């Protein structure tokens, strides 16, 4: 079961990916994915298209999303899998989480103007497939294509991360709310790419403990955002905290993502995969 080629984390144009849900489904199938989930940021409008495309290709599907959460002053991402995409409370929670993005983007644009980069809001908006989901990624693509930086990583490093001129702190959903929206809709909450957060060990312990207290059940161990040292560390933490383990590329774009759909190492055999507890939620092809 751990050897299943499951890819339970990626993004489409509905958030900050560059491919349509149908093109992602096709790419997943071509790359040998056997169980797939589209997990757009704070938005589930692509779910029906993804599920239909998966079905047409003979690819098993789990509903998905990635919710932005503020915890201990840092942005944490919580992936939801296998929920009912029609659930009204989940939909309202996601809408509220998205709500602040427009204002934040305008403030980012004002901040960038102060360092001589003008009209970044209008520029970024042209890259957003979904204007309600304008993201730092869209600013990054705009600043690359307008020649300010050579690639998106340089944009984040120089402009869009804490302490840099275009960074605007933002308050996202509360951890407990995000976990409850997912769980009450019949899904499973999973801590996304824990290796990416700049927590102290004490804060990380608090994240895992509180996440579980709210009903969270999984953690990403093998993800495109982790090093092989992270795989080992979070495999140990999954066992220590009795969490189910997830696997996902976090694919955004053929031009930007270094990990392609389905192209990840297998989950370590000592772990129990999230999909072992989500069989009843899989939309079978
Ligand atoms: P936002 O939700 O608007 O804060 O944007 C966060 C998104 O920016 C993440 O989901 C990634 O897709 C992208 N991102 C964050 N950090 C980096 C980075 N250092 N380099 C490239 N992309 C990044
Ligand atoms: Mn993203
Ligand atoms: Mn993320
Ligand atoms: Mn992601």
Question: Which SSEs are present, and which pair or pack?
Answer:
Blueprint: E1 6-7, H1 21-30, E2 35-36, H2 47-57, E3 60-61, E4 64-71, E5 74-81, H3 88-99, H4 101-113, H5 120-125, H6 136-145, H7 152-160, E6 173-174, H8 175-184, E7 188-191, H9 201-213, E8 218-223, H10 228-240, E9 244-248
Helix pairs in contact: 1-2, 6-7
The structure holds adenosine monophosphate and manganese (II) ion (3 copies).
The site of one manganese (II) ion has 5 residues, from loops.
Shape: globular
Attached small molecules: adenosine monophosphate, manganese (II) ion
Order of helices and strands: EHEHEEEHHHHHEHEHEHE
Q: Which regions are unreliable across 5 or more consecutive residues at pLDDT < 50?
A: none
Written overview of the protein:
- The chain is α/β, with parallel strands linked by helices and 285 residues long.
- Helices cover 38% and strands 14% of the residues.
- Strand 1, helix 1 and strand 2 form a beta-alpha-beta unit.
- Helix 6 packs across helix 7.
- The protein is globular.
- The model has no long low-confidence stretch (mean pLDDT 97).
- Bound molecules: adenosine monophosphate (AMP) and manganese (II) ion (3 copies).
- The site of one manganese (II) ion has 4 residues, from loops.
- One manganese (II) ion binds next to loops.
Which key features would you list for this structure?
binds adenosine monophosphate, globular, alpha/beta, binds manganese (II) ion, 285 residues, 9 strands
Summary?
The chain is an alpha/beta fold and 285 residues long. The protein has ten helices and nine strands.
